[in-house]
Amino acid sequence: MCDCFQCSMTKKEFEEGFENYIQRKELIEKAESFYVPGHGPDFENMTNEQIENHIKFIEKTFAMAFGEEDEKAESANQENDY
């Protein structure tokens, strides 16, 4: 066995690190889905917490911009159906 940090990790430490890697990958994919490729923040240089906050901000912004209008449009369509 070598002296690298991966070989000296316990199974628990390795599994926790892998779970964090998967979680981070999913966060970055979700955050990047809001942008045109090549544009937007560099999520690779952000912490998971910063990425989560950014996702929440974008989702709240979309809800404020489109959520109320969609609800009004749906209720108007339902009224017209009767």
The level of helicity is 55-70%
Cα-to-Cα separation, first versus last residue: 74 Å
- Please provide the ordered H/E string of secondary-structure elements: HH
Percent of residues in beta strands = under 5%
Note the main sheet: none
Mean pLDDT: 79
What form results from the Cα inertia axes? elongated
| Secondary structure tally, helices | 2
Per DSSP E runs of 2 or more residues, the count of β-strands stands at 0
What are the SSEs and their pairings?
Elements lengths: L10 H22 L15 H34 L1
Structure description:
- With 82 residues, the protein is mainly α.
- It is 68% helix and 0% strand.
- The radius of gyration is 21 Å and the shape is elongated.
- The mean pLDDT is 79.
